[in-house]
Design brief:
The chain has ten helices and no strands. The longest helix has 104 residues. The model has no long low-confidence stretch (mean pLDDT 82).
Length: 319
């Protein structure tokens, strides 16, 4: 049962609507279903209590119309459903009794209050910025009903003399429903104005939050780009360091295996020269220094060439 009620009260509401439109459709469905329930209760009273079958037919007509409203909202006929809700119940419940002369004394009382209450309903159901014509039309319509329904009832009906005297008393008979119409309408106008102000502030706040969010997203993308660049730089630097390490290892290998041989021979010949004063022997020793010196020079050239190749390779990687 609860699921059916939720389904019919939310008929026609979809995600593309803003919150105000959703509320208005929900209120249209809810009030139409509420009025349909009221018609059922009054229908039982007309049939079993007063035996007024003409009135029961009218309640049935209103009941069927109210059940059509959620269906029309489901078909996205929003203005049509609101117009049916605001116009046809009053036409059937107020106009038909006057046209056929089916008037009771009690109708002099509740007809006016019904019109006064419905003066404020257009402000609930319609959008104040888009549907001003609808609001003005139905407000004037129900204001005229509140002001002149008693005149129509007196003209077409035959109320008791006491009722006629009561109707002529403006302060007791006419002023209270007019006060109800004025109070409900001004209250709704004030409420809608306050609600519009809060909605405007909310939209402004949401816009600022959205701009802040977009700015944060842009900053986050910028930071991610910086992080990616840093990672690439770290990888490149790591490659450079690895290359330098390989050069150092190569240099250490050269130093360990190639440089030490000729260098040891040179140092050995120099040490031998310290123990000889013979010029011929010293000359012979110096002659023997030439081959290891040339070999050491060749090794140093190889070291320089290796280092130059490593540096040129690192520059190519950086470029």
């Amino acid at each position: 049962m609860t699921g059916y009620i939720q389904y019919w009260t939310k008929a026609g509401i979809h995600s593309e609507m803003d919150e105000d439109e959703k509320r208005k459709v929900f209120l249209t469905n809810t009030m139409s279903l509420f009025l349909a329930v009221v018609m059922i209760l009054v229908w039982f009273n007309d049939i079993f209590n007063t035996e007024n079958y003409l009135a029961a037919y009218r309640r049935t007509g209103v009941f069927v119309l109210m059940l059509m409203i959620p269906f029309l909202n489901h078909k996205k006929q929003y203005k049509l459903s609101k117009s049916i809700f605001l116009f046809f119940p009053s036409l059937i419940l107020l106009g038909v009794p006057i046209m056929i002369g089916d008037i009771f004394p009690g109708q002099f009382i509740w007809f006016q209050y019904a019109g006064a209450i419905f003066c404020s309903i257009p402000f609930i159901l319609f959008n104040h910025n888009k549907d001003k014509i609808y609001i003005a039309f139905f407000f004037i319509y129900y204001l005229l009903v509140t002001l002149f329904i008693d005149k129509l009832l007196l003209y077409y009906g035959k109320p008791p003399e006491a009722m006629k005297e009561l109707v002529t008393n403006f302060s007791d008979f006419k002023l209270p429903p007019l006060f109800v119409a004025f109070f409900s309408t001004t209250t709704l106008l004030w409420y809608n104005r306050i609600n519009a102000q809060y909605e405007k502030r909310l939209k402004s706040t949401n816009k600022e939050l959205q701009e802040t969010q977009e700015e944060l997203i842009a900053k986050n993308e910028e930071y991610e780009a910086i992080n990616r660049n840093l990672e690439e730089m770290v990888v490149e630097r790591t490659k450079v360091i690895d290359s330098k390490n390989r050069q150092i290892i190569d240099y250490a290998n050269i130093n360990a295996h190639k440089v030490r041989g000729p260098l040891a021979r040179i140092m050995g010949l120099i040490n031998i020269s310290d123990y000889s004063d013979d010029p011929k022997e010293l000359k012979s020793l110096f002659e023997k220094l030439r081959p290891p010196s040339e070999e050491l020079n060749i090794i140093i050239d190889e070291i320089n060439k290796t280092l130059e190749e490593g540096n040129s390779g690192n520059q190519d990687e950086n470029n």
